[in-house]
Amino acid sequence: MLRIGDLAAGYHPDTPVLHQINVDLAAVVVHTVVGPNGAGKTTLLHTLAGHLRPTTGWVLLDGRDVTGWTPVRAARAGVTLAPQGRRLWPSLTVTEHLTVTRPPARRPNSRTWTVDELLEMFPALATRLHHRGHQLSGGEQQMLTIARALRTAPRLLLCDEPTEGLAPTMAAHVIHALQDLPRHGVTVLAAVPHARAAAALSDTVHVLAEGRLTGPITTSGGQAEQALRDHLALTSPALPDHAEAHR
Ligand SMILES: Nc1ncnc2c1ncn2[C@@H]1O[C@H](COP(=O)(O)OP(=O)(O)OP(=O)(O)O)[C@@H](O)[C@H]1O
């Protein structure tokens, strides 16, 4: 659905963060982009969600040029960001988060999600309906961030570090929910900092290093972790074996 070619983006004209990014998110699966802190993962997701205008290159959605679109146009077309840091509305309750966010009226082919379906996906939220954003645990906030994004009926969900800082059981729940989305026609592109997390979460991994993407690596063959280590070693030649566990 989404194709990106020769894309460059950054925050200052003289210092691009992304250089010549090429990627084709044709398959309705979970894709990850993995790379160390500062590699540009957030910058890539923000560019795709329309928060940042690319300096060069193109973005095609179903063959239509959408380069430089706004977040509103991106969301209307079915591309929604679940941001890092959760960015909830602190004074709104769980129910209010889910009811004020609605799918666009005219997008017949997208899977829409009722509040009840989202509470079934994330039962922890069902017991917190009247709690405000700032009263939720980190895991509950992450679930609500994803649930709120799903309310816009995305075809492509961009998730920035969806398991960051979560306890293992919460992280497992979030991973399970994301892995189930392709079954509903939703493609996922998640940014993660660790090779192992990328291999566990996704079907296809794209490695971002020094502003460039390599891959994709398919995780189904069992070789993903070694392939990722090889790719990441390109930018960290001195990395000792035991350091991988902390990447
Ligand atoms: N708003 C901003 N203004 C200027 N520079 C920025 C801004 N946001 C990020 N950067 C810089 O862009 C580069 C890429 O940052 P980005 O957040 O995209 O990386 P990341 O891979 O998501 O890392 P992390 O996992 O630490 O968030 C870094 O050098 C960062 O300092």
From TrEMBL:
Q: Which domain of life is it from?
A: Bacteria
Establish whether keyword Endoplasmic reticulum is in the entry.
Answer: no
One GO molecular-function annotation for this sequence?
ATP binding
The keyword Disulfide bond is assigned to this record: no
Q: Which residues form the signal peptide?
A: none
Give the Gene3D superfamilies listed for this entry: P-loop containing nucleotide triphosphate hydrolases
Tell me where in this chain the ABC transporter domain is found.
2-235
- Keyword terms of this UniProt record: Amino-acid transport, ATP-binding, Nucleotide-binding, Transport
Q: Which family does it belong to?
A: Belongs to the ABC transporter superfamily.
Q: What is this protein called?
A: ATP-binding cassette domain-containing protein
Task: Please report the organism this UniProt entry assigns to the protein.
Answer: Micromonospora peucetia
